[in-house]
Amino acid sequence: MRAEDAVKSGWSERVRHTESAIQRLKARGLAHARVEDARLDGRQIELDGRRLVNFGSCSYLGLETDARLKRAACEAVERYGVVFSSSRAYVSLPLYAQFEALLSEIVGGYPVVVAPTTSLLHQAALPILVNEADAVCFDVMVHSSVQAVLPTLMQRGIHCEPVPHGRLDALERRVRRLSAQYARVFYLCDGVYSMHGDLANVSKLWALLDGFPSLFAYVDDAHGVGWAGRHGAGIVLGEHGLHERMAVALGLAKSFATGGAVLALVRAELAQRIFTCGGPLIFTGPLQPAQLGAGIASARIHLSAELGELQARLRARIELFDELVGGAGCWTQSRSPIRFLEVGSDEAAADLAAKLLAAGYFVNTAVFPAVARGHAGVRLMLTCQQELDDVRGLGETLARCLRQLPAARAAAAVGL
Fold first, then answer.
1. What domains does the chain contain, in order, with CATH numbers?
2. What is the pLDDT of residue 401?
3. Is the entire prediction scored with pTM above 0.85?
4. How far apart are the C-alpha atoms of 38 and 286, rounded to whole Å?
5. Region 380-399: what's the mean pLDDT?
6. Is the bond into 369 cis (omega within 30 degrees of 0)?
């Protein structure tokens, strides 16, 4: 079989497998579900007539129901309408200038580029940042929205190769080798990995950037926003700052609770080039008035002393969960609000998620292609909206469910 045919065949098989897996989860109420609530409070959702505590939300700080954000969104709609239907290549709402100034303050005063989504931001920025004389290394677990840009780069003849997850020692060896042939080596990674919640080793990455003038890091820290760092700027910008050869993307649809994305760069002219020439920033619509209004309100909260209180509230829930269930063993453990339990097969993951659903807790079921084949599991997120009793109840239910797994795995998972 030709290589091209093998690739096509592999993609078709992936589509078939994904469709089949999702249909099985859908039949058990674990995928493509629709909430039945007339009004959401951020803590609970109703599915199939059952009230469930929601542990499937990435709105870690719980700002999506904050009255200030809702009021600001409504006021923006009253002033500017439901949509402003024009590419920013032509004209932008005046709210953008205020929003971008606040975002720049959050990230430490650096120039920023705002995009409608994180995915569109990657598609706009990476083809501008990476040149034909460069090479790309990417963490194999970097978010799918980043990896989706790789075919575009490879079509231009740009060399792209994977690096084992989290292995900055392997990256160092690649950089040494590739620097002899290419002008620059770009490393693409996440700040917080969305499925397992583990963190990039930013200190080590910073040291590599200092040691290799040819290395440039592009970090997707969408899941680090809000709960981590000064002004909620994430585990990179909020805790380390911005290296001169680094670009950091922040998602605004999770903790920030408004939608959109922002890229922070050192050089203003590079930010302007991405805004001017990035395809999705030319040919897609802008953030709409409600998002801009809510975004300004959220930014003000992030820049206030209140953010520290929200971060502390979230930490209390993370610490309680780890105390109850045990961060060791099968559970991932980090400072992030994301917890993942690998159980192996798709069926085992669905069974565990269904038991939690029956007990009143909604979690995410993770199967291929979200995780590798044979490494399915459940993912849950801790948020400020959940009560401490919700976390206790989930922890006790999980402990009971995990004891029904094969003995060795259950023992590791509950720390026995």
1. 20-54+307-414 (3.90.1150.10), 66-302 (3.40.640.10)
2. 86
3. yes
4. 29
5. 96
6. yes
